[in-house]
Amino acid sequence: MKKIEAIIRKSKFEDVKKALYEVGIDWFSYWDITGLGKSTADQVVRGQVFHSHYIQRHMLSIVVRDQNVDKTVNAIMKAARTGEMGDGKIFVSDIEATYRIRTGESGPDALFNHEHELEEK
Q1: Average model confidence (pLDDT) for the chain?
Q2: Domain ranges for the chain
Q3: What is the per-residue pLDDT across 39-64, written as a single tens digit (0 to 9) for each?
C-alpha cells in the first residue's frame, strides 16, 4: 500500500477530483495549505497585489493499493499540469498498516474502491 500526497493549485482541484473519480479513486482527504515557493515576484489579480512567495494550494492525501499507484499519480499529473511554475508536487510513500475501524479489516482489504468491489462479485 502507498500513500500519495499531492500539492496542487486550488484552481485545478475540480479537474483533479474528476480525473481521480474516472480512474476509480473515489475517496481521499484534502485541505488548504500555504507554502513558500522560490518565486518572489508580486502578482496583481483584479487590482489586488499578491505576494507569490506565499502560495495557496490544496494538499490531497490518498492511500491506495500498490497496483493503483501509477494510475492515481498519472491522473493527478495530467489534470493538475498547466506547464507553468507552481503546478505542485506529488509524494509517494509506503504505508505499513491500514485498519478499517468499522469491520476490523486490515491491510489492503481495509481500502475500498471500485476495483475491490468488482473483485468481490
Answers
A1: 86
A2: 2-94
A3: 655 666 667 766 656 678 999 999 99
CA distance 52 to 30: 22
Q: Which residues make beta-bridge pairs with 94? A: 2
Measure the CA dihedral 68/69/73/76, to 10°: 40
Are 9 and 57 within 8 A, CB to CB? yes
Q: Say which residue the cell 500539492 belongs to.
A: 7
pTM: 0.80
DSSP string, 57-76: EEEEEEEE-GGGHHHHHHHH
What is the spatial distance between Cα 117 and Cα 20, in angstroms, rounded to a whole number?
Answer: 17
- CA 67 to chain centroid, in Å, comes to 17
Could you say which DSSP state residue 46 is in?
T
CB atoms within 10 A of CB 9: 19
Is the domain spanning 2-94 CATH 3.30.70.120? The answer is: yes
What is d(CA 96, CA 50) in angstroms, rounded to the nearest whole number? 41
